[in-house]
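Customer escalation, tier 2.

The customer says the design service returned an amino acid string that "doesn't look like it belongs to this structure." They asked us to rerun it and document both sides in this ticket. The original structure tokens are below, unchanged.
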């Protein structure tokens, strides 16, 4: 799985060099960690990278739920599931 490169910058850079930080995030797919008093405070990502990361997290959450369903026996035979889906689709037409 791809993770963006991380760069650490002080909070003053956010104010004084915003365009440069924005370009780093967008063009280089770098996550810029903004520090306050030498400690991590905020992370800036390009919008496209944010959307990709959010989609990966949502997929992992769905997979974790499915794994839990299997673990606790909350499953149904595939044939029954597809029959139910077909029935739902036929009812809507």
């Amino acid at each position: 799985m791809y993770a963006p490169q991380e760069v650490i910058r002080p909070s003053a850079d956010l104010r004084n060099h915003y365009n440069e930080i924005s370009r780093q995030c967008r063009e280089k797919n770098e996550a810029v960690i903004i520090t306050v008093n030498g400690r991590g405070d905020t992370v800036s990502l390009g919008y496209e990278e944010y959307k990709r990361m959010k989609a990966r997290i949502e997929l992992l959450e769905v997979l974790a739920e499915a794994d839990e369903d299997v673990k606790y026996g909350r499953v149904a035979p595939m044939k029954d599931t597809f029959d139910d889906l077909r029935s739902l689709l036929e009812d809507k037409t």
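Tier 2 assessment: The sequence is consistent with the input. Residues 47-71 form the longest helix (25 residues). The domain at 5-92 is CATH 3.40.1620.10 (YefM-like fold). Sent an explanation to the customer and offered a walkthrough call.
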